[in-house]
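pinned: reference chain
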Amino acid sequence: MNDKLNNLIDIYLKNGVNLQKYQHLFLTIPLEHHDLGLLIKKKAIKEYEAKVYVYEWDDLSVLVDKPDYHHQNYINKLKEVYTDKIKTLNDDCVYLELRAGIENINCKNIDYLNQLNALIAELNQEFKIKKRNKGNVISCKTVIPTKYWADIIFSEDSLNKLWDVYFKITLADQLNPVELWNKRIADIQHYVKYLNEKQYRFLSFEDGKTSLMVELIDNHKWTGGCEITDKGIRYMPNFPTQEVFTAPKRFGVNGYFKNSKPLWYKNIMIDDFYLKFVDGEAIESGAEVNAGTLKAIINYDDNSKYVGEIAILPGVTEISKSGILFNTTLLDENAACHLALGSAYPCSLNQKIAYNQESFNMYELNYANIHVDMMFGTEYINIKGIDSKGRYHDIIIDGNWVI
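pinned: its structure tokens
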């Protein structure tokens, strides 16, 4: 396991944040992984002469069974971390965020845990908006196995099993994984470059259960695998990833999809569901499992019924091959093609814009207070691009890239 952990640290530092000499590294990590945090810090100092700041705390799962926990200390720590992160947003700082895998803890009606969930969401959103408006800020977000998360997925020997799967999907169990990720990023960037050059007006998605026609925004930009700063530093905002994504026009989605993977939302699983779109709006929905929660997502605010992201993935990925529902979007979204109800990402446009509703409306991007990814692609997905003259071009056939 030591070799795999060393590989993983190299992936985080070289592929994830692409740490440069003398930079300041802000590392957030669950307290459960104190020793791993020390190893990351040691390597960053030794090999990059970095200044390293490590923030660690119990994730909310640990607090579920601590009714007498002094949660004000936790709140103060959270605010300290995010205050530091926001104050230091500049080109010399990089942010590596290792999260507990489970995103939404069952709070069992414990008021202070519900308050903490709300505070974390608020602080995350504030940092995200400031980071996007600042631009050129290197940050990598990923998940890391924890006991609470493992116990939700596996019944026996849970943490060891989850680590085994995690090493596989991150390629940390392979020889020269940093180079393997460089190759994968290059492949993804090939697809990104092709799609950006083509500037298709529409995409069609068909697999027998889904039939979608998606109109893309004018001057749209595909992103995937990595982002590159103005100084030419490449990094991975999310890890691991295999998607390429952009934004549709707010009123440009028509058709229907049937989910191919369950959706885990605020500790509730939604499954066997569908959505039907007319002129961008989700006008009809249904679900065999937790239909009410699906409707709550659609009606979260005035714009959450529209689509902010469309993402292409091959029919089979490491994550889909695992056959596991990880209950965390960062991993589960990389199992299949997906769309997101709610807000678009400003990086989906070939020019910089402010992260606000007025700017989004100007470019026909959807702006909302929610972003929920829903997986619909199967291993037999067929995707075509339609150009400005109405000609169809194959992008994926039976789940395989053909460009």
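why pinned: The chain has a mean pLDDT of 88. Residues 111-134 form the longest helix (24 residues).
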